[in-house]
Specification:
Strand content: 25-35%
Number of helices: 13
Distance between the termini: 33 Å
Shape: globular
Largest sheet: 10 strands, antiparallel
Oligomer: single chain
Bound molecules: alpha-D-galactopyranose
Radius of gyration: 27 Å
Length: 732
Amino acid sequence: MSIIVNEKELFFTLRTANSEYQIKADKFGVLKHIWYGEITGRDMDYLLHRPDVGFSGSIYEADNRRAYSLDTMPLEYPCGGVGDFRVPAICVTHSDGSTALDLRFKEYCIKSGKYAIPQLPAVYSEKSEAQTLEITLRDTASETEVVLRYGVLEDKDIITRSAEIRNFGEKEIFIKKAASLCLELPQGKWEWIHFHGRHAMERQTERTPIIHGIQESSSLRGTSSHQQNPSFIICSPDCGENHGECYGAFFVYSGSFKTQIEYDQLKQTRAVMGINPDIFGWSLKGGENFFTPEAVMTYSGAGFSPLSQNFHRVIRENICRGKYKLTERPVLINNWEATYFDFDGDKILRIAEEAAKLGVDMLVLDDGWFGKRNDDCSGLGDWFVNEEKLKGSLGVLVEKIKKLGLKFGIWFEPEMISEDSDLYRAHPDWAIAIPGRKPTRARYQLVLDMSRKDVRDYLYDSIGKILKSADISYVKWDANRSICDWYSAELSPERQCELPHRYVLGLYELLERLTSDFPNVLFEGCSGGGGRFDAGMLYYYPQIWCSDDTDAYERTKIQYGTSFIYPISAVGSHISVVPNHQTGRITPIESRAVTAMAGSFGYELDLGSLSDEEKGLVSQQIKSFKKYGPLIHNGKYYRLSNPMTENSALWEFVSEDKSEALIQGMIFRKIPNMKRISVKAEGLSPDSFYRIEGSDELYTGKALMCGGILLDDMWGDYRAVEIHLIKNNADN
Ligand code: GLA
């Protein structure tokens, strides 16, 4: 039983294997947050001390109890306008123009299984794996209700949150803000980690103390963005990979978001995450309801490793779907960095021939195969094959590639439109633009209004037609710009503020249709690399191209940040040529290989341009990935060093039964006249004996974890590390 209720006290406890979350509705019906953290064996409300703080008023019913203030107490879903002056979770405007909402407990229910959210991606589970707590709150003055939903996946240490806003009145209300999560930490001094960046430099980790006032990370770009990721970690100052307390949360949403973290006058921390209210509004007529997207939380009392492992597991098993969610992914070769737009059918065939000889599974034809598209100025929207360029039909090319023993995948950028396209000439009003204003162009392109059914139907039909025209096993779904100039010809003026969210709902609807109608196609997400790397997208496709930066050194940092929240199987990562096209850096092919293996693995180059020796290494790498792939994707992931601050990026995968482990990574710079570097393993069975593949010497798990493994002396910079540890058979 993961949800325990004390009926009399209206005290709710959500218990997972290693954490507990406590909520209480007090005698005024105010829903207080009591505790999230270790399982302590008792109700933690004794910690709630309410001082009488000046300028923090009390609710009316509290009479002369001056200390009873919404402004100082931890709340489950704080409302704007009624005396809690901190960051609210919800703000509405009523038909009379007033903006207060005072939500009080009405009722609760417990359901087996995990709730779903209409039109939105969310954690799903077997009925037996999860329970749902629904707490309904009602406004004291209006006909507005909010249902808070908590999903508890006990074994996975996961608690999810989402809210439904219901208008039972006759008159419309306007939702200005509706967050998905409010996490209150009334005790303790905390730091926070968020993941910032830019194109080709996504998810850089930044850890700072939480200071008084509000700090935030957010996106206003219509997508979750390269610049900030919809996820965060709050941790104790001493927290490391395997010690200290930390709380993590990620948002199952692919549009604009905002995370606000407030450290208040009483040194209490509140984190609120949801759709970005700066670019959102929703009119709710009488009888209508609105569902927020989902936020997913975990707590670890033993550092970041368990936090990430919990998230990896729930994303892999309870968010990703479809045929490929847990199976090995094909090793693919993508022609983008090999040819850019400069290719024809023959060139693609030559790349495929070389790839087939070396053991690659699939060729992916990237941008430039459709419409009139020989550079990035034209053609988006014209999803019909450029047969002149391909020297025949797509079906014929695919058959030739299949004869080589390769599967075939193809690139689309469905949400975009070039002004120089037949689609734009026929439907200029399908592009998002404000009448009377020139729209912002980005990469010369405009964005289609995904809130429109006719736009989605066109995309469904044209993409579906291509997918049916040839044996296509994979789709790369790209989106290469941020969105602005929000306006839809189909929405009334008061509803224009709904467009950013309606865009995301439309995108999800189209993805749902295509992924369910083409269940054998592996979809990979992309947005100029990892500009839409979020759990919402992972519900539709199990992997996302992690970054347009394929430089192995830079990638270790991008993938390090990504790994805090997202599983390795979700990380699209390829080996490309040197000097690298984004940085000019030269790294050894072995280092590029281990970095790409910490992902879905593939190549992004013309293998024909490699030396014979390098080709030999490529076929070896593919064999290695086939051997290690199950361990890499199913194993527990550990970060062994911090590439943001150390001279190395090292990580480890440990099989569930601890019978083997793989340490991989890179030492960045050679330091002269230095003793050999040692690396400490994690997650092994302490008393078992392990040997390093290629040697017979035995080490206890404890020796490898406490003492470490001495790395071979290395010559040169960016040297690869790869150590396979195998538990001794004689040992149990
Ligand atoms: C984006 C992607 C690249 C490639 C190009 C094609 O930048 O991230 O991998 O597909 O688009 O235009």
